[in-house]
Amino acid sequence: MDFGRIGYALHNDPPRTIRFRHSIYGNCIGIVMLVLRVEQMRAIARRLNSDFRRRAYGHLWRIFPQDCQRLGDCGVRDRVEDGIRRAAGFGMTTERQALCFIDMMFLIGPDFYRQNPEAQDVLECEEMSGDCKLDELYRIADACSDQ
């Protein structure tokens, strides 16, 4: 189970039931079933989302203190929310992918992909994974900074 992905899918289609089967008793391995109800998965997802947003907020203040000071607390929180939403819309659903996308919003600009047709094409490509999209975006950003 990739708990990093729970947070981005929780609003629309939470898992119905998840069963974990694994337990260790002394030196023996046994099977114990744990069933998580939808309500429990939503509670876990809310907690994970809240923790991620808090960590992303702290990360941005450490890495981009001047930009964060200019935006203020509410502006930084709004940028985090906006970045998570936009990243998920482009298929970047893990915490790492979302945070990298938010970093690019700070480095290049909040609408960086709208200003660069090549970046827009990469993000809209449904065949590429989130990690591949990030690799291409970093390549594009490097090429733009060299100009």
Q: Cα-atom Rg, whole angstroms?
A: 19 Å
- Order of helix and strand elements from N to C terminus: HEEHHHHHH
Query: Roughly what percent helix?
Result: 55-70%
Count of strand segments: 2
What is the CA–CA distance across the termini?
43 Å
Shape: flat
Low-confidence stretches: 1-23
Structural class: mainly alpha
Number of helices: 7
Quick overview of this protein structure:
By secondary structure, this protein is mainly α. Helix content is 68%, strand content 12%. Strand 1 (18-25) and strand 2 form a beta hairpin.
Account of the 3D structure:
With 147 residues, this protein is mainly alpha-helical. Helix content is 68%, strand content 12%. It has seven helices and two strands. The protein has helices at residues 3-9, 38-63, 65-89, 95-107, 112-115, 117-124, 130-146, and strands spanning 18-25, 28-36. A two-stranded antiparallel sheet has the order 1-2. Helix 1 (3-9) packs across helix 2 (38-63) and helix 6 packs antiparallel against helix 7 (130-146). Residues 1-23 have low confidence and may be disordered.
Question: What are the defining features of this structure?
Answer:
7 helices, disordered N terminus
